[in-house]
């Protein structure tokens, strides 16, 4: 039972995340300080980093500096409680099902 509890806690905190596109120009880039982002520039370069600092004109992180006018698309990683709960519940239900089948199979052997 301890192993199942540890597995449940591990899976829950592992979590699921989703990428959400940032509406450029509608929200200040400084809102995303501390967030993990993927930025695609008009030149076709793709950068993945944690935003450390931002102004209205530039975003900075992990030694990367990108001007806002060069950003074609930016996505931010967001935690999804629904996905996390769903996957954790599904894994736990599978474990309980397998344990139940093993238990009832063992009883049938007697």
Structural write-up:
This protein is of the alpha+beta class and 110 residues long. It has helices at 2-14, 81-108; strands at residues 17-21, 36-41, 46-50, 53-54, 58-61, 64-67, 71-79. The strands form two sheets. A four-stranded antiparallel β-sheet has the order 1-7-2-3. Helix 1 (2-14) packs antiparallel against helix 2 (81-108). The longest helix has 28 residues, at 81-108. It is rod-shaped, with a radius of gyration of 22 Å. The two termini are 24 Å apart.
Which tags fit this structure?
110 residues; 7 strands; 3-stranded antiparallel β-sheet; 2 helices; 4-stranded antiparallel β-sheet; alpha+beta
Which strand-content bin applies to the residues? Answer: 25-35%
Spans of at least 5 consecutive residues with low confidence: none
What value does the average pLDDT take? 77
| Tally of strands | 7
The helix/strand class is: alpha+beta
Number of DSSP helical runs: 2
Q: What strand order characterises the main sheet?
A: 1-7-2-3
Helix content: 25-40%
Overall outline: rod-shaped
What are the secondary-structure elements, in order, as H or E?
HEEEEEEEH
First-residue to last-residue Cα separation: 24 Å
Rg, rounded, reads: 22 Å
Sheet of most strands: 4 strands, antiparallel
């Amino acid at each position: 039972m301890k192993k199942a509890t540890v597995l449940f806690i591990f899976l829950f905190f592992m979590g699921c995340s989703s990428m959400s596109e940032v509406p450029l120009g509608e929200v200040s880039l400084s809102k995303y300080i501390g967030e993990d982002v993927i930025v695609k520039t008009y030149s076709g370069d793709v950068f993945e980093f944690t935003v450390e600092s931002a102004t209205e004109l530039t975003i900075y992180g992990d030694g990367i500096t990108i001007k806002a006018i060069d950003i074609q698309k930016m996505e931010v990683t967001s935690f999804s409680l629904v996905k996390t709960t769903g996957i954790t519940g599904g894994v736990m239900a599978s474990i309980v099902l397998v344990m139940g089948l093993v238990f009832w199979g063992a009883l049938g052997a007697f």
